[in-house]
Amino acid sequence: MKNFTFIDLFAGIGGIRLGFQSVGGTCIFTSEWNDWAKKTYQANFGDNHPFIGDIVPFPEDEIPDHDVLLAGFPCQPFSIAGVSKKNALGRPHGFECTTQGTLFFDVARIIAAKRPKAFLLENVKNLVSHDGGNTFKVIIETLRDELGYDVHYKVIDGQNWVPQHRERIIIVGFKNKTDFSWDNLEIPEIKLTLKSILHPEDGSEKPEEPYTVGEKAKVHSKYVLSDKLWAYLQAYAEKHRAKGNGFGYGLVTENDVARTLSARYYKDGSEILISRGKGKNPRRLTPRECARLMGFPDDFIIPVSDTQAYRQFGNSVVVPVIKAVAKLMLPHI
Q1: How many whole angstroms separate alpha carbon 38 and alpha carbon 71?
Q2: In terms of C-beta density within 10 A (0-12 exposed, 13-18 middle, 19 or more buried), how is residue 140 classed?
Q3: Does 210 sit behind a cis peptide bond, omega within 30 degrees of 0 on the bond before it?
Q4: At what angle are helices 306-314 and 35-45 packed, to 10 degrees?
Q5: Which domain holds residue 161?
Q6: Catalytic annotation, pick one of 27, 75, 97, 290
Q7: For position 238, which CATH number holds?
Q8: pTM above 0.85, yes or no
Q9: Eight-class DSSP state of 127
Q10: What is the pLDDT of residues 259-308, one digit of tens each?
Q11: 290 an active-site residue?
Q12: Domain count, the chain
């Protein structure tokens, strides 16, 4: 294990950080603007290092020198209109022109100023196809051509590590040319099912209120869908089925793999509903089950309401995926 430093941008609740800590990294700077995410992050990491809110107005020269930059940056539309006009007027060009006004610009300006040995950027799979591929083209050209990094990217499905179909684009880069290859990514041979993350409800697990209660640590009744909501979801799905659409709820058992957990899960839980048997209303996942579905350890503290917890885990990364990528990057940092 080497010791290296990293900064955690658009940090959320620290999923990417957990992956890089697992291979010997030390976080020395964090940025996250959402106060609820910040509460969860600080409850789990309790740092003494600088923790700032919005990265956009923050001067890059005030960020400490670091070996690795990590960023799960949100995807915003990129406008490349007006580039030639700006060039004609002698205004900034390159990444400053093509990415100004997007959050990726802030990642690029920090890389340009601090020149870390490596970086990892994470985003939704759709980033690759956004705007007919132009958005992704601008990002890769900025990192590779403007900033001069050795860049590699791959869409990775989290269901190789957790029982959830979740595809995300991972972009990694190195300041120097390397022999890094995705072919060496260690993918587990055994595929997990939801049984591995669901509360057993048989007393083999200690109760964790308010998620599970009683001697047998049964899931709290508040996670069971009301008759009204269950009837609505079934009617909604039937209406779309009649039109030939695929919209509807995702009903699963412990032997299945879930759909992608999203930040909207708090609304009705419809994308992942756990069957409770014939004639019974299904239930939502508890926030602890969501944490497990994303690969967070069971000692990860959840200090926020269910609504905020669902949003946070739905926006997070699959931690074991990041661990595997961090391990792959380590010899090249």
Answers
A1: 15
A2: middle
A3: yes
A4: 80
A5: 4-190+317-332
A6: 75
A7: 3.90.120.10
A8: yes
A9: G
A10: 999 999 999 999 999 999 999 999 999 999 999 999 999 999 999 999 99
A11: no
A12: 2
